[in-house]
Every structure is written in structure tokens, then in C-alpha cells.
Amino acid sequence: MSIPKEPRQLMINVMYLVLTAMLALNVSAEIFNAFKLVDKGLLKSNASLDQANSQMPAIIAKGAKAKSSLQQYADKVDPIRDLSSSLHDYIQNIKDTMIVATGEYVVNSETGETTDELMGKKDFDITTRYLVGEPQADGSVTGEGEKLKAKLMAYKASILELIDEEDRESFEKEIAVAVDEDTWQKKGKKSWSHMNFDHMPLQATLPIFTKYQNDVKATEAAALNYLSGKVGTSEELVLNKFTVVSAPEKSYVIKGEKYTTEVFLSAFAGGDSKTKIGISVNGQSLRTDKDGKAIFTETASSLGKKTLNAKATVTNPVTGQTKTYSNQFSYEVGERSGTISASKMNVFYIGVDNPVEVAIAGVNSNNISVNMSGGTISRAGGAWSARVSKPGTATVTASADGFTKSAEFRVKRIPDPVPKLSKSRGGGMGSGEFKVQPGVFPVLENFDFDAKCDIAGFRVVRVPKRQDPQVVVNRGGRYSGEASSLIKKATPGDRYFYEDIKCKCPGDPAPRDIGSMVFNIK
Fold first, then answer.
1. Helix axes 202-230, 77-101, angle to 10 degrees
2. How many CB atoms lie under 10 A from the CB of residue 173?
3. What's the domain count of the chain?
């Protein structure tokens, strides 16, 4: 009996769609628990494959003793197992690295015991930074995701090298490890890892990596069964531990959308024509394909949590015994929602870039259309940037898949800057310090935006003791020759008045008055 081919790459692509939607939602704890359950189910399947694979070397070695020419197949057992063990451990290291980097597991404050809940289960920075990374000038990538892809492809090629040349074409169909190189390019993604891991919560990536480990173990089992067949062993490996697995396109769907999931029996020898599998969901019998998988679809007609009761019956072709296995799955139906928010302040300022965050539940950010009235808006990295030109209001509108969300923002001028001389805007100042100042400059206090205002001009008046005032009009913020001469005359007891100080900030049609300053020379 052959070892089954594991769930196709569609499982990963489907999970990516689910998790992209989660980024814009306040996803309930039940959804993260669902990913934990999927991961645990796959880990159980891996344990079954480990147990089965561990029996095969002895069986193959026994069969190879019948004829010296068969020893070549027994000699391939260790290379196959070493390749699989190395790749499995590499994938496990990826999982462990991200878990450790995000704080490992939550500790129960009452008992002091470590739970199985991840500290960083919602963290998508570690997956994006560590798995996707940034492309380099030479075309290489820094993310571990592309390295994983290369190792998966290399593993598949290495396994095929250990198969007789005349059998490779047919055996390749039994290899569960696969890399989808077409979908990410058709979708215009930056890379395979960008499509699969960009901005995915940590909790949701773990089942993906466990699934890759499952693919490795299934491929190892297929190769060992191939060697077993070559040496003519009479023993037939039968997996006797099963679990029903559901691979949904989305675990969170919007009212009116269809909920679609693959339901299959994990770790079962699919593809064996002698094996009979029957699957039903909520009492509805489903048609299964040659791999023992069935498609279940229903329309999400009401809001809330939906429960699916799945059953699978399997007839063992060796013993003729029929067993039934069952499991329960759930998904949630919600309303479409969207958010539009200013990243820094809940107001737009004239003359600067105003960052805006836009999200619509269940829609990839690249598929959201955004426009603006009362200004212009453009894409700026993962967010948007708005520019406005006159006070009043501006409205940002986001739309996708027939859903529209709008938000109105007040538009203001940049706040008046504060005129200063040195670090002061008036009061006492020593004559030495006063004379070395180059001029007046404006300061935007408590303003989060990167904006620069310029002094357009001012009038400086020197009032020495028992003498007539001396007045100079200065253009710009730096002292002109005449103003500089007046400043150098400063002696203790003088008073200097800075009047009619004008300043121009980004977006200003004309200079604005920002007040005056008075300094007493000491």
C-alpha cells in the first residue's frame, strides 16, 4: 500500500487568503485556536508517519538479503532518511526561531506553569522580517522563506536522484513536497515567500511549516515504499492512525460569500484503487477523488459561528475492516467592514505629507481602491499619503468588492511656529551671547510632521539708556549688514524689540505674523 500524497499547495495559498483578511480584523480567539488545532492535527499525522517510516529500514534490509544485486536499494535507505531528517530539522528551526524571538509561550500567572499559548501569536513583523526580508541589489534575498523554497526544491531533486531513472517520471507524482512557482508571479507578488508569509500572524504560519514537515515525511515514506517494492518484500505497510482534516479557503467569511473547504483523511494511503473512502459533512455525503479528498461548499447566509461535523469511513484493503472517524470544525461569518485613519493626528495639515492607513476586512491591501476629495492621495509603501492645500475638510474613500468606506478629516494650516533667538524667545540675555546670534529662527513645537518654516522678515529696535530708539528692518531670518551692526552695539542696560516677525510655512500663500520678542541686555 502506498503512502498518501499530502494536501496540495492550494492549502497554503488558501490559508494565505484567510490570514490576509485577518490583518484588517479584530480576529477572535477562536480563529487562532482553530490554527492551533490544525497544527496539532498535522503533528499527530507526522507522528504516525514517523512510526511507519521507522519500520521500513528493517523490512528493506531483510528483502535485500535475497539477492546481492538488491543491496543497492538497501544502501539508499540511509541517504533518503538523512535528507528528510535534515530538511525536517531545518523547518523546525525556522519555527523555533520565530517562537523564541516573540517571547515563546505565555506563563500562567497563578500556577507559574507554561501554557501552549504563544506570546507573539498575532505578531506579523517577525514573519515578514524573518521569512520575507528585503531584495538585495544583486537579486538575492535576505528572508529565510526563499532559502526554504530552495531547500524544498533541492530535496525533491535529491530524492529523485535516488530513484531508478526509468521510474522517476511516475514516482515524481508520489512526491508530496512541492513549490508553486506560478501563482505568485501571476498575482504580481515580489516573491514566493512574499505571497505566502508577508504580514501573516505567527500562529497562522506554524501549520504551514508543520504541513511542509508532513510533506517531507510523506515523501520519505513514498521513497521507502518504492525501495521496499524493488527488493520484493512481502510485508505491506498499513497506517492504522487517522484523523479527519479540513482545509478551508477561509476560516472567516463575509455574509453572502461561500464557505469552501477540502475534507480529507490525513495519513491515509490515497491513490490506492483498492481502498474505499466515504466522507460526509453534517449528514451530507460527498464525492471523493482518488486521493480520498472531498469538497464541501455552503453559502454563508447568517452571521455567527458555524459548526461542521465531518465523518470519514475507510476500508482497509488488507484486513477488509471498515472504520469510521469523525471530527468537528467551525468557521465564523461576519459583516464586511473597513477602517480609514490618519496615522499621526486625526487632522490633515496643509503643505506636508499626511500618512493614512486604509484596510477593508477580507481584502488584500493591493486590491483596495482609494481616492480623496479636497486633496490628493497616493500610495506610500504599505500605507497612503494625503496632501491638502486649503483649510476646511477632506474626505478619503476606500472601495473593494462592492464595499465602500469613507472618512472625513479636518484640514488645518501648520500651527504657528515660535520665534526664537538662541534658545530663548525673550527676557534677559548676556551681551556676549546676544551679539553672536546669527538671527531669528522659527520652531514648530510639539508638531509630529517633518516641516520647515522660514522667517520672511522682522523689525529690530534698539533702545539704549537715555538715548533715542534705533530701528532697522531686516529681510529674512539672518541678520543683514545693517541689522548686524545694530546688534553689535548691544551694551548692558539696552533693550531690543523684535517686532512684526513674519514667517512662511509650507502651504502658506503669504507670510504670517508670529508675534514679537523683547530682550534685556545684561
1. 170
2. 9
3. 4
What is the value of pTM for the model shown? 0.43
Distances (CA, A) of 141 to 13, 380, 418, 458: 21, 22, 47, 55
Q: How many CB atoms lie within 10 A of CB 297?
A: 11
The answer to whether the CB of 395 falls within 8 A of the CB of 380 is no
15, containing H or E segment? helix 10-22
Distance of alpha carbon 103 from alpha carbon 98, whole angstroms? 9
Helices 77-101 and 29-64: crossing angle, nearest 10°?
A: 160
Final residue before a domain boundary, out of 273, 306, 335: 335
Q: 3-state SS string over 191-224?
A: CHHHHHHCCCCHHHHHHHHHHHHHHHHHHHHHHH
- Domain that includes residue 275, residue range: 243-335
- The arithmetic mean of pLDDT across residues 244-253, rounded, is 63
The pLDDT score that the predictor gives to residue 143 is: 82
- 265: exposed, middle or buried (Cβ count in 10 Å: 0-12, 13-18, 19+): buried
Please write down the HEC assignment for all residues of 26-78.
Answer: CCCHHHHHHHHHHHHHHHHHHHHHHHHHHHHHHHHHHHHCCCHHHHHHHCCHH
CA atoms of 40 and 210, how far apart (whole Å): 9
- The confidence score (pLDDT) of residue 142 equals 72
What is residue 236's three-state secondary structure?
A: coil
Average pLDDT over every residue of 336-361: 85
Which residues, other chains included, contact 5 with Cβ-Cβ below 8 Å and sequence gap of 6+? 173, 174, 175, 176, 218, 222, 270, 271, 291
User: H helices then E strands: how many in the chain?
Assistant: 12, 26
- Could you give the CA distance from residue 492 to residue 117 in angstroms, rounded to a whole number? 71
The CATH number of whichever domain residue 325 belongs to comes to 2.60.40.1930
More confident position, 146 or 42: 146
Q: How far is CA 55 from the centre of its chain?
A: 40
What the block records as the C-alpha cell of 225 is 515504499
- Alpha carbons 285 and 34: distance in angstroms, whole number: 24
**Based on the domain organization, do 28 and 117 belong to the same domain?**
yes
Closest of 426, 440, 432 to residue 488, by C-alpha: 432
All three cell numbers of 248: 478551508
**pLDDT tens column, 461-502:** 999 988 899 999 999 999 999 999 999 999 999 999 999 999
Listed ranges 46-55, 66-75, 97-106, 402-411; the one with the highest mean pLDDT? 402-411
Same domain, 13 and 157: yes
Same domain, 229 and 136: yes
Q: Cα–chain-centroid distance for residue 337? A: 20
Let me know whether 489 and 390 are in one domain.
no
User: CA nearest 6: which of 154, 227, 216?
Assistant: 216
Compute the residue count for the chain. Answer: 522
- Alpha carbon distance 439, 430 (integer Å): 16
Q: Are residues 132 and 150 in the same domain?
A: yes
Q: Which three cell numbers stand for residue 285?
A: 455525503
